[in-house]
Amino acid sequence: MNNYRRGVAMVIVMWVVLVLSLLISGFAFTMHVETQLESFNRKQLKAEMIARSGVEVAKMMLIRDLTSPKDGSFDSPNQAWATNETLYVNHPLGDGILNVKVTDEESKMPVNKITSQQWHRLLDKLGVDPADADVIADSVADWIDADDLHLLNGAESDYYESLSPPYRAKNALIDRVEELLLVRGVTPELVYGQPATEEEQAAPGLIELVTATSSGKINVNTAPAIVLQAALGLDDVQTEAVVNHRLGSDGELGTEDDQPYKSLEEFYALVGNISDEVRTQLADMLTVQSTYFTIRATGEVGGVKHTITAVVRRGDDKQIRTVTWREVRGG
């Protein structure tokens, strides 16, 4: 009987030890998870603060450029607001790393002002079939105009309401370039571009070439060749001359020997064969100094990232005003 009682007691003790072990293991696991979460939250907060600091650094550089006696009257990729290895690239800040990229929104074509002829030239450069280009150009015009009368190859609400899911034409200005995805004929590949393959080079997308947030002018110092050709109808010889002049002797953009256009007169002189009437028309389309910029700042701490993308407007009063603000957390 005594042996039986000892056996029962031993079994009970073993069960108690097992239960306690499970409780302790569960508690330890919970504490480990909470510690990991707390660590992640601390890193996330630090990464966010670093990204916010990056936005402020970029704003500071934009203001400094505007007040510079040497560079204050024009904007180009070789200035410190655009090219700043010291502050923008893998810059140590606190416990983390800061990376900043500033893009001139006026290096792109203003999407709400692009004419049918300009759309056709741009889409042709992107390899779009002429028939599809007709549809896209007219459909964008119909999307923006205030009426429900569609152009020859366009589309209004009657077309979009036949889709699944149905929706109506906006009949107002485009607020974001991604909105073009709602327009008849526009594909994700056209908007976002396509990566390089073994057979073909990478193709840019409309999101890199047009903007919904700008003064409506194009900066001839920052606009890529495809934008200058589409907007102005420059031929290959004129475009090469314009671009090569900007690059300087080393053939690279964003270096000390760049030769930016300090006035539109310098640009006209290089392009050549421009009448006074055309110059007057171009004055409303072109500029050498920009107003809107996109700042993309990423803070990283221990593998945890936080990215802020802000579109800002730089005024003549030397103030920077935020137009849009978007934050993305990453692992």
What overall geometry do the principal axes of the alpha carbons give? extended
Quantity of strands, as a count:
9
> If you average the pLDDT, what whole number results?
90
Helix content: 40-55%
Q: Strand arrangement, largest sheet?
A: 1-2-7-8-9
> Please, what is the oligomeric state?
single chain
Distance between the termini: 63 Å
SSE order, as H and E?
Answer: HHEEEHHHHHEEHHHHEEEE
Tally of individual helices? 11
- Uncertain parts: none
Alpha-beta content class: alpha/beta
Main beta sheet: 5 strands, antiparallel
DSSP strand content: 15-25%
Rg for CA atoms:
28 Å
Structure description:
The mean pLDDT is 90. The protein has eleven helices and nine strands. The chain is extended and about 115 Å long. The longest helix is centred in the first third of the chain and has 65 residues. With 331 residues, the chain is α/β, with parallel strands linked by helices. The N and C termini lie far apart (63 Å). Strands 1-2-7-8-9 form a five-stranded antiparallel beta sheet. Strands 3-4 form a two-stranded parallel ribbon. A two-stranded parallel sheet has the order 5-6. Helix 3 packs across helix 4 and helix 3 runs antiparallel to helix 8.
Describe this protein with a few key phrases.
about 325 residues, alpha/beta, two-stranded parallel ribbon, about 45% helix
